[in-house]
Amino acid sequence: MKVLLTGGAGYIGSHTAVEFINAGYDVVIADNFDNASPLVLDRIERITGTRPTLYELDVADAAAMDAMFDKESFDAVVHFAGLKAVGESCAIPLKYYRNNLDTTLTLMECMKRHGVTRIVFSSSATVYGIPERVPLVEGMPTSCTNPYGWTKYMNERILTDAATADSELSVVLLRYFNPIGAHESGLIGENPNGIPNNLMPYITQVAVGKLPRLGVFGNDYPTPDGTGVRDYIHVVDLARGHLKAIEYAAAHTGTEIFNLGTGIGYSVLDIVNTFSRVNDIDIPYDIKPRRAGDIAECYADPKKANEVLGWRAELGLDEMCRDSWNWQKNNPGGYTLD
Ligand code: WQD
C-alpha cells in the first residue's frame, strides 16, 4: 500500500513514516519545510534503510498536489500538515485559519479528483476545550479556546461532512493528547522553532544547557500537587496508532473518532521529577503564574481505541523521559548538518 503523509517531515509525521516503512508500506512525504527540516529524510533512511519519496510543496497548492497525485497512486492519506502553536494562533489567527483550512480543503478536493477515499486526520484533544469532567470520551462536547483548536474542530467538521456526502469516503479522526519522547535511535525528535511552548522540549533544553530554568505555570490548580495534569503519550505509540487507523480506514467507510492517549494523567512536577530520576539530571525550576488558556486536567479514556482499533499505548513515562533526553543530548541544536 502507498500512503501519502502530508507534513510527514514533522515531529509526529516522521515517527509515523518510520513505523509505516517498518510495516512494509510505501511512504510518500509532502512537506513545505515551514516547520520541519529536510535532514529528517536522511534520518528516516538511516533508521529504516528506506528513503521516503519526497515532494517539497505547499499542500494548499492545488496544481502541485494534482501533479503529485497524477504521478503517485495513493491508497490512503495521513494529513499532518498544519500550523500548530496555540499561542501563535492567538497572535495571527487569520494565518492559522487560511493555512489549516486551505490545506485540508485542497487535499480533499484533490483526493476526490483522483479517487482516493481513505484519510486519517491529525486532530487534537484541544477540541474538547475546557472539559466538564475527565477522563475524556470521544462523544463528549467539543468547544475550543484558541484559533488553533478551532481549526482542528473545523477540519473535523469538513471531513465528517465530506464523508456524509460521499458513501465511499473513509475518515478517521485521531485526537492526540500530549505527544512527547522520540525514536529510540535518537535520530528523530521534537525540534521546535525558537523558545519551546511545550513542556518536554523546554525541559530538555534546560537539561542540555540551552535554557537556564523551567517556569512551572501555576501550582494552585485543583490537582494532587497543584500543577497541571496532562495525558503524555510516547510519540512512537502515537505513530503506531496511525498504522491501526489506516487499517481501520481500509475496512470501513464513514467517519470515526479516536482518542490517542494513555488514560493516565501526570502533573508538571511528575514530569520534572521523572525526567530528573531517569536521566540523573537536575532541572531547576521556578513556580510562575498560571498560563492564560491552560486547564487544570486533561487526560483520555482510550477505551474505544483499545477495543475498536486494537491499539494501546505501551511505553511508560520513564521511556518517554529517557527517549526525549536521548534525542536532545544527541542533537543539542536540533536538526543540524552532521
Ligand atoms: C503541558 C503542561 C502547562 C510549558 C498543547 C496544545 C495541544 C497539543 C499539545 C498540539 C501544562 C505546563 C508548559 C512550560 C509549564 N498540541 N507547562 N511550563 O498546553 O497541554 O497542550 O500541546 O496538538 O493542542 O494545547 O501542552 O506542553 O504546552 O503544557 O508549566 O514551560 O505543562 O501549564 O500544564 P498543552 P504543554
* Residues in β-strands, percent: 15-25%
Total number of helical segments?
11
Instruction: Please state the average pLDDT score.
Output: 97
* Structural class by secondary-structure content: alpha/beta
What is the approximate shape? globular
Distance between the termini: 33 Å
Placed side by side, the strands forming the largest sheet appear as 3-2-1-4-5-6-11
Detailed description of the structure:
The chain has 338 residues and is of the alpha/beta class. Helices cover 41% and strands 18% of the residues. It contains eleven helices and 14 strands. The strands form four sheets. A seven-stranded parallel sheet has the order 3-2-1-4-5-6-11, with helices on both faces. Strands 12-9-14 form a three-stranded mixed sheet. β5, α6 and β6 form a beta-alpha-beta unit. α3 runs parallel beside α5 and α7 crosses α11. The site of UDP-4-deoxy-4-formamido-beta-L-arabinopyranose has 18 residues, from α7 and β8.
Show the helix and strand layout.
Layout: E1 2-6, H1 11-22, E2 26-31, H2 39-48, E3 53-56, H3 62-71, E4 76-79, H4 86-91, H5 93-113, E5 118-124, H6 147-165, E6 170-176, E7 178-180, H7 199-207, E8 214-217, E9 229-230, E10 232-234, H8 235-251, E11 254-260, E12 266-267, H9 268-279, E13 285-288, E14 297-298, H10 303-309, H11 317-330
Parallel strand pairs: 1-2, 1-4, 2-3, 4-5, 5-6, 6-11, 7-10, 8-13, 9-14
Antiparallel strand pairs: 9-12
Helix pairs in contact: 1-2, 1-8, 3-5, 5-6, 7-11, 9-11
The protein binds UDP-4-deoxy-4-formamido-beta-L-arabinopyranose (WQD).
